[in-house]
Specification:
Blueprint: E1 4-11, E2 14-19, E3 27-33, E4 36-46, E5 49-54, E6 66-73, E7 75-78, E8 86-87, E9 117-121, E10 128-129, E11 134-140, E12 143-148, E13 157-162, E14 166-168, E15 175-178, E16 184-187, E17 191-194, H1 217-222, E18 230-234, H2 241-251, E19 256-262, H3 266-275, E20 292-297, H4 303-321, E21 326-332, H5 334-347, H6 361-369, E22 373-376, E23 382-391, H7 401-409, E24 412-413, H8 418-422, E25 435-436, H9 442-451, H10 456-480, H11 487-504, H12 511-514, H13 518-532, H14 541-560, H15 566-582
Parallel strand pairs: 8-20, 18-23, 18-24, 19-20, 19-21, 21-23
Antiparallel strand pairs: 1-2, 1-6, 2-5, 3-4, 3-6, 4-5, 7-17, 9-11, 9-14, 10-13, 11-12, 13-15, 15-16, 22-23, 24-25
Helix pairs in contact: 4-5, 6-7, 10-11, 10-13, 11-13, 11-14, 14-15
The protein binds adenosine-5'-diphosphate (ADP) and magnesium ion.
Adenosine-5'-diphosphate (ADP) binds next to helix 2.
Length: 583
């Protein structure tokens, strides 16, 4: 029998309910308001009283309205058809809607139940299987989508029968499994999973040991992110967080992309909703959307739906990871998620932490980031979820709680700086404050030595040293004036400008410059460092400035030219001539 209850109090979306039976934390319930049913989640239980957070507007709700508890948590529906979809935080399908908004009390089905999928069995009768083991496969777009033993299954099962190769919809039984007590259970191509619980079903979760190529030079060359790693991009409004994330989404070496768009304003989300499907995948020439799922929400959606969206996105990522795929999760911006947490905790009149965020904000963020990672599946193959979130600190203040908590949780830090954005030095990543802790992992260092070249990490350190030296020199020049410092200061400064203009700065809107594969990044860094290694004997700082401006100009042209094309080679010849004269 289902537990039921009556509404006793309403503060915006927070509703208190007197219950007649057991309810559990995070359980779902429905409140009947006239002829609509509003979905809500239990966020606090106290004796016969439950506090529930309604996922939509509570307009018209009154004391005494009846509530029915579901005895299950908020779940994601998983199965073929998730890719190319655009959902809200509750997995309502936004593409079937006119506009981005549903009517109140309207919930749509995330997956198409009629569509037929070409199924190929992988397991055979008699096989012993456990949760997450692969039973068969369908093609979703051009990706192999594994049909797995549902994650909720406990213990070992024996495959009793499995469907022959053929076309089936997601509700058709494709396998019958016998559990340890001899009972038969049917498996279809779809399953559900509570979004706030991490999907297990793998053998181990080792430390990341290789990098994920993004084509973005400030990331790959300077502070690489590991496959299965975590990173975050804090930055004030308009500094390029979204542009940088979209570049990573477009170019990143991943099989599946999940974009969790938590917009500040509705139009930003409508943008991703309309623009993303137009993007072409530079690796395959196909629509990027074919291997993407978008989860959208805007700040005018109710707080609980906003809070749920990042969990729904992560659950979908873990699902694809269990198929042995490389998944990239991008959340923009996680500050909106943290604000949703804050709104909820404030309405609950909980004792607030810093800036009125919940006291356990840091733990909530860390637990979320911890769901990313590379895993070794039961069959020995690997899958990964790489997670990069943006943070939009109010007024660009990096000491605020969300940035500080995220800094503890994420291992890469890409700080976007107002000052660089104002000077149009994009991507405006501050090269001195930013870091990747993966560079310190011996297994990553070894991987970089093999994949790029021996001594690569030393070259990266040297590059960072040049940037820091250049900054110090520039500070001195600004204080003492051009004539007040030795010539070597000017040279140091211009060498750092060379690194800045050629390696750090990258035009996200130029097809060639936007995507720099690793071999090209290696080539350019070697070239730039070979120039920085020279000890030029300039007569005066004006000569130094003219020389470096010319060199920078040529190297920038190279960045905009097809790698090793005739044009590229011509620029390189020009460069050699100038360098010969300069010495
Ligand atoms: P945010 O998400 O931080 O508010 P956006 O990503 O929307 O900022 O970027 C704001 C603007 O900055 C963009 O519209 C674009 O004009 C410029 N911009 C950001 N990054 C780049 C880049 N890598 N190359 C060129 N322009 C950029
Ligand atoms: Mg943005």
């Amino acid at each position: 029998m289902k537990t039921t209850g009556k509404v006793t109090g309403i503060v915006s979306n927070l509703v208190t309910v007197q219950v007649d039976g057991p309810v559990s934390q995070n359980e779902l319930c429905f409140i009947t308001v006239g002829d609509t049913r509003l979905m809500a989640e239990v966020i606090k239980v106290n004796g016969q009283n439950a506090a529930v957070q309604v996922f939509e507007s509570t307009r018209g709700l009154k004391n005494g309205d009846s509530v029915e508890f579901e005895d299950r948590m908020l779940e994601a529906t998983l199965g073929p058809g998730l890719l190319s979809s655009c959902y809200d935080g509750l997995q309502n399908d936004l593409t079937t809607m006119t506009g981005v908004f549903l009517k109140r009390g309207e919930y749509t089905d995330p997956l198409n139940h009629e569509k037929l999928w070409d199924f190929t069995p992988v397991a055979k009768p008699g096989d012993k299987v456990v949760a997450a083991d692969w039973l068969g496969e369908v093609k979703e777009g051009w990706l192999p989508h594994k049909i797995m033993v549902p994650f909720s299954f406990k213990g070992e099962y024996t495959v009793k029968s499995i469907a022959a190769a053929g076309q089936y919809n997601i509700d058709k039984t494709i396998a019958v499994l016998t559990d340890e007590s001899g009972e038969d259970v049917e498996v279809t191509m779809t399953q559900k999973w509570p979004v706030k619980v991490a999907i297990k079903g793998y053998k181990e979760k080792p430390r990341p040991n290789r990098i994920m190529e993004t084509g973005v030079r400030v990331i790959d060359t300077l502070d690489p992110i590991a496959e299965g790693g975590t990173g975050f991009i804090p930055g004030p409004f308009g500094c390029g967080k979204t542009v940088l994330q979209h570049a990573i989404a477009k170019q990143g070496d991943a099989d599946v992309i999940v974009m969790a768009a938590c917009g500040e304003r509705a139009n930003e989300v409508v943008e991703i909703f309309t623009e993303f499907p137009e993007l072409i995948d530079p690796h395959t020439g196909r629509h990027l959307m074919e291997r993407t799922t978008i989860i959208c929400n805007t700040s005018n959606m109710p707080v609980a739906a906003r809070e749920a969206s990042v969990y729904t996105a992560m659950t979908i990522c873990e699902y694809y990871r269990a198929m042995g795929l490389k998944v990239l999760l991008l959340a923009d911006s996680t500050s909106r998620w943290a604000q949703a947490l804050r709104e909820m905790s404030n309405r609950m009149e909980e004792l607030p932490g810093a800036d009125a965020f919940p006291v356990d904000l840091s733990a909530i963020i860390s637990n979320f980031y911890a769901r990313a990672g590379m895993v070794v599946l039961n069959n020995g193959q690997t899958g990964s979820v790489t997670f990069i979130g943006t943070v939009s600190p109010a007024g660009g203040n990096l000491k605020e709680p969300v940035t500080e908590s995220t800094k503890k949780a994420a291992r890469c830090f890409y700080a976007l700086e107002q000052n660089r954005a104002d000077k149009k030095r994009y991507p405006a990543v501050n090269p001195i404050d930013s870091y990747s802790k993966y560079l310190e992992y011996p297994e990553i260092q070894e991987h970089l030595a093999q994949r790029i070249r021996p001594g690569w990490v030393e070259m990266v350190e040297k590059t960072k040293f040049i940037i820091r030296k250049g900054k110090d020199a520039n500070d001195q020049i600004n204080i003492l004036g051009d004539d007040g410092v030795p010539m070597s200061y000017h040279e140091l400064f211009w060498k750092s400008e060379l690194v800045d203009f050629v390696i750090l700065q990258q035009d996200a809107f130029d097809q060639t410059d936007a995507l720099t594969p690793l071999d090209r990044q290696k080539y350019m860094l070697e070239l730039v460092l070979s120039i920085c290694d020279r000890d030029f004997k300039f007569d005066d700082y004006e000569q130094c400035r003219v020389f470096f401006k010319e060199v920078i100009n040529i190297l920038r042209q190279m960045n905009y030219s097809e790698f090793k094309s005739e044009k590229f080679n011509n620029y390189q010849e020009q460069l050699s001539k100038i360098l010969d004269n300069g010495n």
